[in-house]
Amino acid sequence: MPEHHKTHNVNDVKTLFEWKSPGRPFKKRGKQYYLTALLIMLFVEVILFLFSQYLLMVVVVALVFVAFALAYVPPKNFYYKISSEGVMVEDRFFLWKELYDFYFRESENLETLHIRTESFIPGELILTFHESDKDKIKQALLPYLEFREYIKPTFVDKAANWLTKNFPLENK
User: Fold this and answer.
1) Are 48 and 58 spatial neighbours (Cβ–Cβ below 8 Å)?
2) What is the rounded distance in angstroms from the CA atom of residue 87 to the CA atom of residue 81?
3) CB-side neighbour CA atoms (13 Å) of 49
4) What is the C-alpha separation between 49 and 56, in angstroms, rounded?
5) Is 96 among the domain residues?
6) Number of neighbouring beta carbons within 10 Å of residue 99
7) Residue partners of 86: CB distance under 8 A and separation at least 6
């Protein structure tokens, strides 16, 4: 059969929704954030030094460096696509059978889409989007994944919220 007479297959991949947005939630931090984090790091470093935990001291400095880098450098825009085959983040494609369910959560005053995966790694895809696209994204995902209105916070979520509430690194 000639090339131009081919009919489209029923299994053709259809793009349901696509968008570009930052690769992670981002909030510009002030000097107070960096100063407070440095003071906490120095306090922890002194305690670790007193207990001769030199390797842990290096780990703490490395973690603070990463936190500062993520707080200072804004993320680049990522390309996201929801298709009839799965979800694409930049150049990484996740088939529907690899994904479990999805829900929305607020992070850094920005709504984020969380898609849980069947495998342990990555465990969860966290995608940012424009607030006006929330309903379109939800409608594109509903035929393929279960929507969770509420996800019970884990111990780590509860601990992070408690620390953020009781020990803020900057005033709001």
Assistant:
1) no
2) 6
3) 7
4) 9
5) yes
6) 20
7) 93, 94, 95, 96, 98, 99
Do the beta carbons of residue 95 and residue 123 sit within 8 Å? no
Ramachandran sector of residue 70 (left: φ over 0; alpha: ψ -120 to 50; beta: rest): alpha
C-alpha 124: how far from its chain's center?
8
Q: What is the pTM of this model?
A: 0.81
Same domain? 41 vs 68: yes
Residues 64, 119, single domain; the answer is: no
Name 118's Cβ contacts closer than 8 Å, sequence gap at least 6: 97, 98, 99, 100
Residues facing 113 on adjacent strands: 104, 127
pLDDT in tens, 116-153: 999 998 899 999 999 999 999 999 999 999 999 999 98
The answer to whether 25 and 10 are in contact (CB under 8 A) is no
Amino acid at 121: I
Which residue is it, tokens 């490395």? 62
